[in-house]
Amino acid sequence: MRGLDGPEQPMNETSNEQPSVAARMRLLIGDQGKLIVATGFLVTLSALAEVVTLALIAQIAATLVKVNNTHVRLSVLHIHAPTKTLILVAFVIAIARLLLLQVPQTLLPARVMANVWARLRMNLFEAFGSASWELQSREREGKLQEIMTNQAGQATQGLGSFLSLINSTLTFAVMLISAFVLNLFAAVIVVALAAVMLATLRPLRRLGRRRARALSRAQVNYAATVAESIRIAEETHVFGVGASLRSRMDKRVATSRRLMFQTQLLGRIGSNVSETFVYLLLVCGLLILNATGDKHVASLGAVVLILVRASSSAQNIQGAYQSLIQAMPFVELVQETQRRYEESRLGEGIQPLPHVTSLAFSGVGYAYRAGRPVLSDIHFNVNEGEVVGIIGPSGAGKSTLVQLLLRLRAPSEGSYLVNGISAPEIAIEDWRRQVTYVPQEPRLLHASVAENIRFFREIDDEAVQRAG
Q1: Which of 23-37, 296-310, 321-335 shows the lowest per-residue confidence on average (mean pLDDT)?
Q2: What is the DSSP-derived secondary structure letter of residue 8?
Q3: Among 274, 340, 330, 337, which residue's Cα sits nearest to residue 162?
Q4: What is d(CA 40, CA 51) in angstroms, rounded to the nearest whole number?
């Protein structure tokens, strides 16, 4: 607890048993699965169209080098047509692929990410609003803002990496199957190179995830420091501690900068290594062509183009997976924070409360930490019409007692009775209509005086004027 009667309690951000990456992504995707399936279908068709285009280009190029004949062979498929006609067919396929497949497959992931981004923010806000005040009061200043903005944004980018991983994997599979159909030996080479690439980059992915998790924590600390600095701006001027505050902020920024550099560096190293493997594949393809000679140069040329494109997809797979792994700490923090909020909800009760006639504490106690009670064995009964004052030194538990009365906290022991009914059994909406209080600190909205009086409640203008 902060600013009342007890120390702030640390919170465990994650549970001992962590869900898998796949489980995290399923939870993140939510109701957007159909759009993702539709995107995968379009990507597969687009990859098939690309295979045909690449094969036509390779075959036509080989034909033009020899002589402008009319016979082209695509593996088991034999086509007899003028070369100009085949060029036109390749052109039409490329344009049709762009307009009919690539444009939709670009729009759908953008829609999915926008929907998920908005849902994450609203779910977090709703979960926080319905969480127990006991948990809300323990949250660090600026933490919810940081999670709803930067952390949720990073989690959404992780979803983008996941979608890119799916699309690149589908493209790679189509390219690889096509290469196997055209030339088994060359396809085996690309599979071997892709396996070596993934094994080589595995340590980088692990290190990247650790650095990303540290960056996520550092950004939360940075946001908390910013929020706290705003809150104590008056005291900072009065006591002249601006230099110390700036030094503290400088440490936060320096930590975030170091971790940001490390995560970006690891990602770029992985990209460069993947690019090198693509060039190695191209060299291997040329060696195969040179060893084979002119007999199958056209079909092998198509295989080389397809395999180079497949290697590019493999590079995209590596990059997307690296980005996904580095985004997972942000996904985990967003989801675990929402889970904590939802699990902290107090029971709302079902008993109606038309009127309050009595309040009673029977052996009520409360402790912020086990074994260190702030209140213990409190007994009293207050009837309708009575006025009661509570006095005591700072830290004696006055604020905690009021929060128990308001049902912001639940007693650690004992019973709280309203009209002789256990307070948790009373419908929370009925209870709120019967209760009012004056907070210790004024809370003003960035709105008109009338809206501050209403405070998000349905109150007509006449009542607002009377209150003003």
Answers
A1: 296-310
A2: P
A3: 330
A4: 17
